[in-house]
Amino acid sequence: MALSQGTRSAIPVILFLLAGFAAPLMAVIWFSFMPPRSFSFAGTPTLENYATIFESTSYISFLWSLGLAVVTVVLLAAICYPVAYGLVRVFGKWATLLTLLFTIPLFVSENIRLYGWVLFLIKNGVLLGSLKSLFGLQLESMLFTVPAIVLGMVYVYLPFMLFPMTLGISMVPNETRDAAFDLGATRWQVFKEVELPLSMPGVVIGFLLTFVLAVGSIAEAKVLGGQSVIPITHDIEIAFTYSQNWPLGSALAVLLMLVVGTLVVLALRRFDLDTFLGRR
Question: pTM for the full model?
């Protein structure tokens, strides 16, 4: 059967996705069933790597990664929604362009930006040194603590939450808001019944994008946390590098993908995507 023009045009993209995404993913999954400390795909499949994970304390790293990601998403939601709402209501169609300004820090290496926070938070650094010089205050540094890690994650992933939220809020027609006011709705009722539901596509995308990125973060815990918290990505890195146990690292990566994928699917099932995307 002859392929349509659209199908033939999509073949290069399909091949690219298979070679660049599906093939490496399948390689990681297959490697997770290889004997520990092996470096080839030849071998008898085994569940030993997964047994090692469940017999160890890796679940603590999973909980830390998930917990930090959830806290980051909640804080960013509280910060970004009012900012995005203000940008849209004040600047209108220019809000999206202005939001792009928040992506400028992304052009600088994440590690460099985090080390900037180290200089800011370290004892006798920019913050504590200034407080000591100006007010004579002697405060303990919050560097290498969990709050410092959360601060770094909120700072790094703010653009990924703000931009989708701005797009979502800008999708709410002014005519709909005005109609609600004309029908006697209060300001709170308009927000609760009109603005928030109609802006949910951007909100949900921001939640999911930020959560997935935050779960896989590692630099914040290393630079700002000083290894006070060990995320699951650190265990994966150690397995692939210092331990030279690629099958164990693959098993950890597969479990992380399964956990995150399951949580994302469960979250999406609570929402009507067709309504979100304007299909009905």
Answer: 0.87
